[in-house]
Amino acid sequence: MRLLNTKTLNLEEFLNEDQVSYVILSHRWEKDEISLQQLVAGGVEDMLGYQKIQQYCRIAAEAGFQYAWIDTCCIDKTSSAELSEAINSMYRWYQKADMCYTYLSDVESVNDIETSVWFTRGWTLQELLAPKYMTLFNRRWKPLCSKEQLAQKLSEITGVPYGALCGTVPLSSCSTAQRMAWASKRVTTRPEDRAYCLMGIFDVNMPLLYGEGEKAFRRLQEEIIRTTHDHSIFAWSCKDATGPRDLLATSPELFVNCSEVTLRSDASRPEQYFMTNSGLSISLQMLPWAVDIYLAVLECTADAPQLKLERALTPDTTRLAIFLHQTKRTGEFFRMAISGREIFTCKRSGVRHWLKTRRILILPCAPQEAVPSSLSRLLPYGFVFRSTPTRIDPTKPEDGPVVLRGRNPPEFWANSDHWMVKLHPGQCGTVATLDLRGFGPMNCLLKFGFDFEFHPVCMVDTRTREPEEHDVTSVLNNDDWIDNGVALHGIDAPLQDLDIWERRESYAFRAHRHFFSSVWIFPLQLRIEFSSQSTHVGLDLHNVYVRYFPQKEVAKVQKAKTTKPKFSYPCLSKEDVLYEHD
Q1: What residue stretches are annotated with the Heterokaryon incompatibility domain (predicted)?
Q2: CA-CA distance, 135 to 137, in Å (whole number)?
């Protein structure tokens, strides 16, 4: 460590800063600042930068300090090694100083202190936070007040909580997103310094690579991830963003709305997550949102009005969440924004049934095949019901033997004999019910929905039901049956006939959904036959990828000779269905 002798203004070197008492200066670089080489060479007495050094050392000497540090001439900036060491040590130097003098060259009195450019610079944030004792001076080098005396006003100006400013609350108790928010409106001359000036605040170290641009801030976040389990580092957002997004923020500016993001006080320590050579390996609670899109819940919360987000309940009962899109590989995701929203607040208790914890890999950026235009809108997904020869008319549910009810109102699909019941983004689980009345010895209830992986699932219930069990609202809101579905549909599986009526029980099964290709989505078709008439129900997954056109007869179903309905379940191969991109 190199220090100025306040009496002689000569530089002296110390191998251990713990063995010397010194005062340190916080200021804004201006015209004619003096470098180490210029100070040693001499002849700088008429420069404004030298006059600043003189005044600084004079006040320090009067206060009894023999040594003083200033960043302009106490670092040899021609040496990249020394510059890197100094920047990595700077927070510690300010923290260990006996006193910090803050020179505000554009301020005359305390009343106009908030107008100072000093509050807009990136480097001065750590210079405000690190010192235990600080005295602020105006442009004439007249003392204004101490940091402690002005703490409340400084908190209002900077957004830094009072306790963090005064040192009564450790910075580590503030979330990563909060600390980033403090720096979100500050600027630096070089883009890399927006990251380097924050290393001390997050207690991390990394080499300096000037010329890397925004990569420096990404490296900073990766270093933070290595030393913390704080999920709030992913709580950044960009206004009006849509489509694929990077996992990590590109600058502190994206944390501008995170000043109220806090870690969950009621949460146990999150499971460890870490960066790999492919991306972030992390365990998250996830909720199906739309086809291949999930809401991933973070272990942090916020005051929603401060974040300008939807508010479900009070801050301590909401969780922040991000949107993730699954790639062609199972368990591999990339981050995305939907309709200008990257962060969402959710009430955990309201979605507890659908929350599942998954260890996943989040890519640093979206793969090339993730075309932004194709992800800018979310299409609904659901089931198409073909009602030939028995007509289904949801508008007149009491007129026919087949009653179709949906989570959302059924809509025409292709023609009047086709109906689609769909889920909107954010909805999951049960989609529709089909009540077959007057066939056989009892009624039959079919329920349709999608499981966590968006596999279409069907339940056929032939049990005798009490009148209250026919309540539409309770039936549609109950999703417990979906996880019990038996996977019967394989790509090459043979035709399976299910004489479920004979069982007189409830039976659920799910169709196979092929995640590994964006082209092949295999529909499940269920045909329910009766002796005199039949009802054909097609369980076809309709999503953002494809529409399909039958090329040949899927399966031949032998007519039943008894009064018992028979459930035939044909499984398709790739040759059975031709898919075409929308």
Answers
A1: 22-107
A2: 7
Q: Are residues 102 and 193 in the same domain?
A: no
The boundaries of the domain holding residue 560 are: 381-581
Residues 322, 389: one domain? no
Strand locations in 338-489 (E): 343-347, 356-362, 381-386, 402-406, 411-413, 415-423, 429-436, 444-450, 456-461, 486-487
pLDDT digits (tens, 9 = 90+) for 536-563: 444 444 432 222 223 332 333 233 333 3
3-state secondary structure of 366: coil
Instruction: Give the residue-averaged pLDDT of 329-351.
Output: 84
User: In the chain, how many domains are there?
Assistant: 3
Residues 191 and 123 in one domain: no
153-162 own/partner pairs: CB under 8 Å, 24+ apart: 153/113, 153/114, 154/128, 157/113, 157/114, 157/119, 158/119, 158/125, 158/128, 158/182, 159/259, 160/128, 160/129
Q: d(Cα 283, Cα 360) in Å, to the nearest integer?
A: 6
- If asked whether residues 83 and 206 sit together in one domain, one would say no
**What is the separation, in whole angstroms, between the first and last Cα of the chain?**
66
Q: Look up residue 470 and give its two tokens.
A: 């026919």
d(CA 327, CA 366) in angstroms, rounded, equals: 9
pLDDT digits (tens, 9 = 90+) for 258-284: 999 998 765 566 788 999 999 999 999
- Can you say how many angstroms the Cα of residue 447 is from the centroid of all Cα atoms in its chain? 33
Which single residue is written with the structure tokens 């554009």? Answer: 106
Q: What are φ and ψ of residue 180, in 5° steps? A: -65, -35
Final residue of a structural domain among 341, 376, 411: 376
221 and 369 assigned to the same domain: yes
Can you name the residues that pair with 356 across neighbouring β-strands? 286
Q: Tell me the C-alpha distance between 461 and 485, whole Å.
A: 13
Last residue of a domain, one of 141, 169, 197: 169
Sheet strands side by side (includes 2-5): 11-13, 2-5, 67-69, 23-26, 99-103, 134-137, 143-146
Residue 416's pLDDT is 58
Q: Are residues 434 and 553 in the same domain?
A: yes
Do 98 and 214 share a domain, yes or no?
no
Q: 3-state class of 17 per DSSP?
A: helix
Domain match, 279 and 150 both: no
Rounded Cα distance between 357 and 88, Å, is 38
**Residue 381 contacts by C-beta under 8 Å, 6 or more apart in sequence?**
290, 291, 422, 423, 450, 454, 541, 542, 543, 544
